[in-house]
Each structure stands twice: as C-alpha cells, then as structure tokens.
Task: structure prediction
Amino acid sequence: MDTAPLRALLERMLNAASGDIDGIARSLQAGWLRAIALTASCYTTDQSITWVQTRDDCGILTWERPQRKSAACTLQVDHVMASSALPFFFPAVEVDTAWYGDGGIRLTAPLSPAVHLGASRILAVSTRYARSRAEADRPAVVGYPPPAQVAGVLYNAIFLDLLDTDALHMRQINELIARLPEAQRDGLRHIELLVLRPSEDLGRLANAYEAELPRAFRFLTRGLGTRQTRSNDMLSLVMFQTDYIQRLLELGEADATVRLPEIRRFLSDRPPQP
Result:
C-alpha cells in the first residue's frame, strides 16, 4: 500500500513538516509529560527497538533485554511510520540506516516499555473483542481454511495474543507482590492495569463494509477468501475507507462513554494499591 497519504496526514496533524514532532518537546518542557516511547521491529538486526524521548531530569535509563532494547532520541514522523508499518501490507521505513516495521512483531511483552518508564498505572487499549465461550467455539469458516482466515489467525497471534498474555502476567505479579512483605519485594512494584476493548468484533464489522472496497482491492481480498470467513480480522487491519473508520470512531466513543466512570476512577490521583 502507498503510505504517503498517511505520512502527509501525520505531518499536518502533528505540525511536523520538519520531521520532528515539536509538541512532544513542548509537553515535556511544560512538565505534564514525563516520557514517551514508540516501539518498532528492526528488519535489519531482527531486534525490537523502543525509541524513548524523556525530560532531562526524569532519570529514566535505557534498557536492554534479549532481542529488545531502547534508544534515546527525538521522536519524528519517521518513528511513527516505522512503528505502524504492518508487515507485507505497508512498506518498511528507514530510520538511521536500518529498516523497520510494526512494533508488535517482536515485542513479546507489550506493557514492558511503560513499566521501564516508571508507570504506576497502565491504560491499555486492545482491538480484540472479548468473545464469550460460545462465540469462541463457533467455527469462523466451514471446510478448509482460506488464506484470509489463516492470515487473520497469524496476525492475532502476533499483535493481540501477546497483550492478553502480558496483562495476565502483570495481574499475577501484582497478586504475588501483595503477599510479600515490602522488604522481600526485590524492587518489584504494584502496577494498576485497565484494559479497554471494543464491544463488537471488528472482523465481523469489516464484513459489513467489504462490498464498498475499491474494486481492484476487493478482487484481491476475495481471492484470498475474505468472503468465506465470518470474522475478517485480516481485512479489518487494512480497511481505511471513510465509512468504516467513522464507524470505528463511533464505536470507540460509545464504548469509552459506557466505561467512563471506571476510567475516571482509574485515572484519579489515589495512590496505587499495596
């Protein structure tokens, strides 16, 4: 896909015609933003890289773990484009002589950058609809799975499963910390977590708008079997037509409104639980 329009949109909305996202530096200087990070997968070195921009006085140190590390920098539109470059669908983006793609590919612990930045609360947004047991057991296809179904399963494993697993681990660690005396916690700290999810299956929602895709693209996707699966997770990733995007915005606003009291309580200034 041609991502030049996306870059132009980001440059315009972020006032970043020069490349640098100046609003980040202003927010850091004003004091209400402590640090910000973006993660990308480096195709050149096969590592997960988290770019970090912080205030000079915040004391956040860079980190390195197996196959993932952080790097201090001034964030630019290039970093945003690299972090969101879906494999196979979006072209890789060059940053400092290396080539990058979507950050979810190699980030085995999606919540870890926020933890490294010192967060005591994490508000995570997942695009995965929480299916009931009956929905989960209902077949999405009949007969041999088409490529679209297989691709959707693979993309879910890469981009969605890891967040759910990491959230479960964080809650288990919180429970463990609560049982330990403070002297035995060895630097571990309780981190509150709130995960927001859509109230509708975005793959099924994409099916309702599939007929409005450009003819050539529709011909390609149907050849991959998008008409044979009840939940088009692969299609929902690359459907950027106005009516579908507007429906996603409306769904997100409605879902957030339903949970607004919970979100407000979570973001209040109460101290974290022991």
